[in-house]
Amino acid sequence: MWTECCDAGSRTERRIRAKKRRTGPVCRRSQVTRGLTLAEKIISRASGQEVRAGDLAVVRVGMAMSVDSIAPSVIKVMRQELGVPHVADPKRVALFVDHVAPACNISTAEGQAEVRRFVREEGIAHFYDVGTGVCHQVMIEHGLARPGEVVVGSDSHSTSYGAIGAFGTGMGATGIALAFATGKIWLRVPESLRVDLVGSLPAGVMSKDAVLQLIGRLGIDGATYMSVEVHGAHTLSLASRISFVCMTTELGAKAGMVAFPRQLLDQRGMPDWLFPDEDAVYARSETIQLDGLEPQVACPDDVDNVHPVSEVAGTRIDQVFLGTCTNGRLEDLQAAARMLRGRRVSSQVRMIVIPASDTVLRDAVGDGTLATLLDAGATVGTPGCGPCIGRHMGVLAAGEACFSTGNRNFRGRMGSPEADIYIGSPLTAAATALTGVITDPREVMPNKAAHR
């Protein structure tokens, strides 16, 4: 119960008690007999009773996360508006300095200093300061997001945790403050959109291309407040799975999760119940044919303005950005390095590479990937979000165009509202850096080995 984690005399507790007397922990709209989707199963476990799409449930949070750009607001809401002086369980709270790291100005530095003070006061062990990396990458690397749990974050791309079988979802400052204060949240159980991946990715095409094709097909509101349940993605690498479910946020999804076959759960170290039932009911289904899929590019100024690369090839680019929670992993850097080995980035382009974590950075140094990128003319920055949100480390000027491996390209996202942002895969980014214009990676690949 929420009240177990609140101060005994707080107004918050009294309101919650009154609501509990009226509704109970779950508000069931109807009783039905059918199997459960992944979202329904995870939320049922976290709430302590079976729930279905449309039900309201109070759930235990496995981990609640916040980042430097939002955490000061979370702290203020928890302590001042909720009247709760301390987090309910420091072991289930994680804080990151990643969005503007290192700080770019005094106000940003002061906000980050407030986060560090809060961490010391609360005894929070899961604190990751400048240079550790992007929150979502580190949450998975360090095992803070766990299969079968509800994991919430103050960043919308917390859907990334679905790559390892968690129900990951983004929330605002008030929702995260409640999770900090009580260890629980309430939510409406989402309907599920089933997506089946059929076939294999061809050479020069990555999971980023597959999810961009889906976003272009359905639109930015194509899965509003739904759980996108992806079947057939279990054969992809972890990095590729993260890229796919991370981008489900751009469909308006509440969560994105990879469905693993039941027979693989034990060898993957996942709970034996973490599979969708055969008779689970989905709001609708979509299929992505991977065989023959062409590299995709999201064009200005909407992420659902997606076109095959052949339709936009030749578009001039000033900056190429390889990184973010979507595509800053070792596999992504390696793919770009294979494309650029022994070559030079166009003199008309600046290429910025931001590893998603310090682990990725160390591994890229160890296997020579970083040296290859540097030799090609790329610039490498501190692990973190980099220029993704347009605060530092690669802000765009008016009239400039950037090809990014990030996730959003609305006007002003990376700097000037008069700049253009194109989004695509690491392979397409590397090919574009090589030529100075948007380029189909299949046309300049040094060999025909498949990159997935």
Task: Tell me about this structure.
The chain has about 450 residues and is α/β, with parallel strands linked by helices. The protein has three domains: about 170 residues, Aconitase, domain 3 (2-Layer Sandwich); about 100 residues, Aconitase, Domain 2; about 150 residues, Aconitase, domain 3. Helix content is about 30%, strand content about 20%. It has a five-stranded parallel beta sheet, sandwiched between helices. A five-stranded parallel beta sheet has the order 17-16-15-18-19, covered by helices on one side. The longest helix has 17 residues. The chain starts with 10 loop residues before the first helix and ends in an 8-residue tail after the last helix. About 55% of the residues are buried.
Question: Cα-atom Rg, whole angstroms?
Answer: 22 Å
Number of domains: 3
Main sheet specs: 5 strands, parallel
Share of helix among residues? 25-40%
CATH topology of the largest domain: Aconitase, domain 3
